[in-house]
Amino acid sequence: MDCYSFEKIISDYLDSNLTEKEQQAANAHLAECPDCQGRLQDMNNILSALHSLPQPSMNPGFEARLLACIEQQKAKKESPFIYVLHQYSRAISVAAAVFLLLATSLFVYSAFALPSAPGKLPAAEIRMSNAAPEIPAAAGSILAGSREENTVKDTSKTLPLNYQRHIMVVNE
Amino acid sequence: MTEKKKIYSDEELIARFQKGDERAYIELVRRYKDRLLNFVYRYLNSYEQAEDVVQDTLLKLYTSAHMYREIARFSTWIFTIAANLAKSELRRIKRRRVVSIHDMGFDDKEYEIPSEAYSPEKETTSSYGEKQIQQAINTLPDQFKTVIILREVQQLSYEEISQILGISIGTVKSRINRGRLRLQKLLKELKTH
Ligand SMILES: [Zn+2]
After folding, report:
1. With contacts defined as CB-CB under 8 Å, which chain A residues touch B173?
2. Are B72 and A92 within 8 A, CB to CB?
3. For residue A171, with 0-12 CB atoms within 10 Å meaning exposed, 13-18 middle and 19 or more buried, which class applies?
């Protein structure tokens, strides 16, 4: 056996896949060839390095995440409409808030700022024209029933709209 | 009253899960998550992506458990799924970073501190550190890489590997043989660089 042949069977030699005859020939070559001894030693080192590679383990939260993922997929399969609602619930509520806000602003604007608006109130009044954007429900209540409460009686001139939004005056 | 908990085999567990017992599924997850992670991590060389692939594998186990037939061992079946998902993930990663050739060479840190410095107990001239080994694995062609990881890291038998990859035992043997020689050559090159 020469070095080339030994290299070809080195893997089988290590895994004991050789026939007895091949094994003997390999051993005979090894006994007289320091190069192949080194080659074999090196391969052994590589394999033991591979065998002793650190083994990472899963993050502790993995199982919970996996099960949540399964639930999500189930929901998607069972009721696609509700799943979409659920999935986009945040977007839907933001859209609703923006819509309410716009509607409120538009209502207030058309009621009090437009000159042609039929229900125009005296110019001396300052109105809260801007509801807090993050609370659409509050905007609704202002719209509904606090028209009188939010007025200031004796202001002689109307402030520009962008000032109005910073003034909050509430009568007791 | 001595209540002994029965240890189910993987195959018994999958059979129970096929009949609707979700606890059997959880038990399989617990048995395999780390083993699968270990395989995919070495294959992709990224913990996060490996975790995603393992999650997809175990999701697939949940949704496709009915596809399992008892002719195969459960372990080879689940590894087949993981190997396929890992392979397509690697293809996706490679497509994304065609440019970074730097991955192939040593990084600066390794020039500064020779790997022997990390493990003084292994003072022999030809000992190999994790980084070198992983680098060599990364550079192996795919057909050798999978086989080498399954054999040397997972320590599976030739037969199991042949079932997982759907190739003959002869092919497994020759790929292990050639893969090991490639690895040896790559590590030599990495050392002399
Ligand atoms: Zn020789």
Report:
1. 11-12, 17
2. no
3. exposed
- The CATH number of the domain holding residue B173 is 1.10.10.10
Q: How far apart are the first and last CA of chain A?
A: 108
Contact B184 A56 (CB under 8 A): no
Q: Which domain holds residue B181?
A: 127-193
Window A:68-107, CB contacts with B under 8 Å:
69-70, 73
Domains: count for chain B: 2
Do B135 and B93 share a structural domain?
A: no
Domain membership of residue B116 (yes or no) is no
Give the Cβ contact number of residue A5 at 10 Å. 14
Nearest partner of A104 among A152, A136, A134, A147, judged by Cα: A136
pTM score: 0.67
Q: State phi, psi for B84 to the nearest 5 degrees.
A: -65, -45
Q: Does residue B84 sit in the same domain as residue B135?
A: no
Residue B78, number of CB atoms within 10 A of its CB: 24
The pLDDT tens digits for B140-155 are: 999 999 999 999 999 9
Q: Is residue B35 part of a domain?
A: yes
Please indicate if any CB of chain B lies within 8 Å of the CB of A144: no
pLDDT of A122 strictly over 70: no
